[in-house]
Amino acid sequence: MANKTVVLYQYIKIGGKWTYRKAPTRRLPRLPEGAYYLSWYEGTRKRFENVGPDPDVATVAFNKKSAELKFIATGGEVKQADVQPAEEERGTRKRVTAAIKEYRRFAVTGRANPDTVWRKRALRRITIAWGS
Questions:
Q1: Is 11 helix (H, G, I), strand (E, B) or coil?
Q2: Looking at the domain assignment, is residue 104 inside a domain?
Q3: Is residue 39 part of a domain?
Q4: Total domains present in the chain
Q5: What is the pairing mode between strands 17-22 and 7-14?
């Protein structure tokens, strides 16, 4: 049988030491230091997820994870969100290192992309011709 249990913990400082404590079942206090954590089992492995210091966010995350595990236990399948960029975005994206190299080349040499230089010169010629 699949595990359907989720436990909400507080990670708080007690007597100068950080420790996990089960969160109260009624009102959850806002934690100025520390955070709330969800705990559940996937097979034999215990999992933890930090849900932050806000009690409202912790309650929503607890209810969501609890419903997710119950759904999985009844034979359902939960699909994860796709984090890959869309097909049309893949060609237009740059790596950060490439953008930094391009910026440094322009900042150090003062030379822009040749296409940009050509466009600026063409615009300057048109502006001078039109203004005189």
A1: strand
A2: yes
A3: yes
A4: 2
A5: antiparallel
Residue 52's DSSP bridge partners are: 36
Q: Return phi, psi of residue 47, to 5°.
A: -115, 145
Residue from 34, 14, 33, 36 nearest 23 by CA: 36
Q: 51 — phi, psi (to 5°)?
A: -115, 10
Lowest-confidence region among 10-19, 80-89, 103-112: 80-89
What range defines the domain where residue 65 resides? 7-73
Domain-located, residue 111: yes
Contact assessment for residue 66 and residue 6, using Cβ atoms and an 8 Å cutoff:
yes
Asked if residue 79 belongs to a domain, the reply is: no
pTM beyond 0.90, yes or no: no
Residue 37 near residue 50 (C-beta atoms within 8 A):
yes
